[in-house]
Amino acid sequence: MKRQFYIVFLYFCVCSSMLFAQNRWTINDNGSISWNIKDRLPHYDHIEMSGLKVSTVLRYGVNKDGSFELNKSMVWPMLRTIPNNTHASLMRRFAWNAPEMVTVNGLSLLNEKVNKIMLDGTMTVESSFVLPGNTHITLTRVIFPSISNPAIYEKYILKNTGTANASVEIPASRSVINTDPTKGVNGSYKLISEIIGSTARQLQPNEEIIFYASISGYKTGENEIKPDIEKELQARKSLIDKLWNNLILETPDTEINTMFAFAKIRGSESIYDTKGGLLHGPGGESYYAAIWANDQAEYSNPFFPYLGYETGNASALNSFKHFARFMNPAYNKIPSSIIAEGLDTWGGAGDRGDAAMVAYGAARYALAKGDKAEAEELWPLIEWCLEYCRRQLNDKGVVASDADELENRFPAGKANLCTSSLYYDALISAAYLGKDLHKPSVQLSTYEKQAKTLRKNIEEYFGAKVEGFNTYQYYEGNDVLRSWICIPLTVGIYDRKDETIRALFSPRLWTKDGLLTQAGSETYWDRSTLYALRGVYACGETEKATEYLKFYSNQRLLGEHVPYAIEAWPEGSQRHLSAESGLYCRVITEGLFGIRPTGLKSFKLTPRLPVEWDTMNLRNVKAFGSSFDIKISRKNNKIDINIYAGSKTLLHKKINEGETVTVKLP
User: Fold this and answer.
1) How far apart are CA 333 and CA 355, in angstroms?
2) Do 302 and 402 lie in a common domain?
3) Are residues 104 and 137 in the same domain?
4) What is the average per-residue pLDDT within 352-380?
5) Are residues 257 and 160 in the same domain?
């Protein structure tokens, strides 16, 4: 007993020390975050940023002497390599940096001291130099991907902050790489690195000069783009503004508000304009010009309607159309992933429960989008996937599958908790959707009965005592705690919520980096942490969910690796995969605010207002074919709900804590 107490005490000490440790980054008034460089050097990090035709992972940092370190990993998803598989995007790493070629008074820019690095959907680096002769120079870099061109752009502002003139020489530079034609689907590709704005001039005190650089990639025969980089920068900023000004979260917690704002960027930007249409890809220097039944159909697509991002919604609909291509009368499995710009498929882990993922995501997307024509288009896919899952029920009435979304990295047995839970939710969503589409009542009542029976079977098959907790075995015979025991909480199954939450936040699973995938391992995946936070909110454990959401948001936004949710560790070195940011956003929409779509123009709302907050708002919500604001406040021990569309009040109601209201939009 003493040993157990010591372990628990040590666990809380570690978590507390991490939570209250000095953050490396701070939040600025305009919503950006900054690292003001003072000490704790060296420090290095990486961040991914994307556009329709390019992605880049910037590996950056500040060396011990204060100088800037940057390596640009470039990805061109539509420059396909051989073999044209999941990972066949052309990738190159460039250590080439334009400032190293600039001279001031005949000398290279040496002795750099980085003062500040800022992130806001672009990267801005502010540095200073002191050169011989007491010449003082500042250099501001702004680095960002083009939103529509196959290029990354860099803007440089060089300023004379000294008292004497400085002689500045910015060279003309153009480097061309023609890749090996035997390794490209379209032969050789042309990669161009160039400095734009070469000049030689005297820079007077307080005068500045602007020049640019770019790295771009083209197929043979494609015309090179001569960009206006100022317009490109404005286009990138306009996109960020659009994402930040829709679906605005307002709470008393600035860190959660800001993390949500950044999550909207990463969750939305990783969409590629391919031969197969707009495809939302995870990224991470591995997964581009392709879609997955989990990352896209299950994680991201149900979120896009709330944001009202047209490109995101178009990519969601397109992904479901791709999966629909593989419906078949024999009910053979659909692929786990559609790759190579939609031209090929991957299913190397067998049936991962992909049909359940697609049915879950398509039904929730269709409901939240509120577009009857789109919903009708998706209905056959939803029907097919539900029937596929029904045909996979084993003799205990739960869904059999070969693996789960972790693709045999960890055991999942012959039937796993995640697949059956998603199928359960999909049945409920399909019943809601079918009513608005006037589908046969017999069919819809069958879905409802199947969901009721499945819920009972989930309890009987997966309900178990694992490591002393009355929670779930992830698969039959599983005797070690798994993070995905959280999944029933996200689909409205709360039968074992108390013990499940106790297990999730026990030292066996919870760490300073979130949930371990399996107790006793060192592996963590943010997706299960984010599902857990959403589920803990959904089942009413508001204070506990908020405590851990604050901790998680602080770590990811302002800690040592920022500013987005990550995929996993040690696999992938904490890549900023896009769909995980979509899952963070769903912690807010479906967890904190408790939005559950029930029709093309209706939803249930179960707000979870933390005790320490008096108000929380979600403004410019774009779901259900509408645009509206949700304002929640606490008045006289009641939860006061106001929903507005412009100046019109759509709903005003006072409820008790934990109650649910049904909202019907015009």
Assistant:
1) 8
2) yes
3) yes
4) 98
5) no
Residue in this structure with the two tokens 């309890």, named with its chain if needed: 459
CB 122, CB 50: distance < 8 Å: no
Question: Same domain, yes or no, for 295 and 217?
Answer: no
CATH code, domain with 449? 1.50.10.10
pLDDT digits (tens, 9 = 90+) for 31-76: 999 999 999 999 999 999 999 999 999 999 999 999 999 999 999 9
**Is residue 261 a part of any domain in this protein?**
yes
Residue 1 confidence class, pLDDT cut points 50, 70, 90: very low
Q: Is residue 417 within 8 Å of 410, Cβ to Cβ?
A: no
Instruction: Categorize the per-residue pLDDT at 110 as very low, low, confident or very high, splitting at 50, 70 and 90.
Output: confident
pLDDT at 4 over 70: no
The alpha carbon dihedral of 583, 584, 590, 591 has a sign of: positive
Q: What is the pLDDT of residues 610-636, one digit of tens each?
A: 999 999 999 999 999 999 999 999 999
Do 279 and 146 fall into the same domain? no
Residue 451 and residue 458: Cα distance in Å, rounded? 10
Once rounded to an integer, what is the mean pLDDT over residues 345-373?
A: 98
* 14 within some domain: no
Helices and strands, counts by H and E, the chain = 14, 36
* pLDDT above 90 (res 581): yes
Phi and psi for 33 in degrees, rounded to 5?
A: -120, 150
Query: Span 82-86, mean pLDDT?
Result: 97
- Single-letter residue type at 508: R
CA triple 324-330-332, angle to 5 deg: 65
Task: Choose the final residue of a domain: 217, 239, 261.
Answer: 239
Q: Any idea of the CA torsion for 495, 496, 501, 506, to the nearest 10 degrees? A: 180
Is 547 found in the same domain as 476? Answer: yes
Residue 436 belongs to a domain: yes
Supply the DSSP string of 296-308, one letter for each residue.
IIIIITTTHHHHT
Together in a domain, 388 and 496: yes
End-to-end CA distance of the chain: 59
Domain count, the chain: 2
In this prediction, residue 21 carries a pLDDT of 58
At residue 227, the 3 state secondary structure works out as: coil
Domain span including residue 185: 32-239
pLDDT band at 133 (very low <50, low <70, confident <90, very high): confident
Choosing from 209, 239, 269, the residue where a domain stops is 239
User: Would you say residue 346 lies in a domain?
Assistant: yes
β-strands 151-160, 33-36 pairing: unpaired
The torsion defined by the Cα of 531, 421, 632 and 545, in degrees rounded to 10, comes to: -40
**Two tokens, residue 290:** 């392709």
Is the Cα dihedral 400, 414, 583, 454 positive or negative? positive
What does the alpha-carbon distance between residue 175 and residue 573 come to, in Å, rounded to a whole number?
Answer: 31
What is the tens place of the pLDDT at every residue in 514-539?
999 999 999 999 999 999 999 999 99
Q: Where are the alpha helices (DSSP H) in 294-416?
A: 304-307, 310-324, 354-369, 372-391
Distance CA 435, CA 189 (A): 52
Q: Are residues 221 and 340 in the same domain?
A: no
Phi, psi of 171 (to 5 degrees): -80, 155
- DSSP letter at 509? T
Residue 101 is given by DSSP the state: G
Q: Contact 351/402 with Cβ under 8 angstroms?
A: yes
CATH number of the domain where residue 88 is located:
2.70.98
Residue 329 C-alpha from the chain's centroid: 35
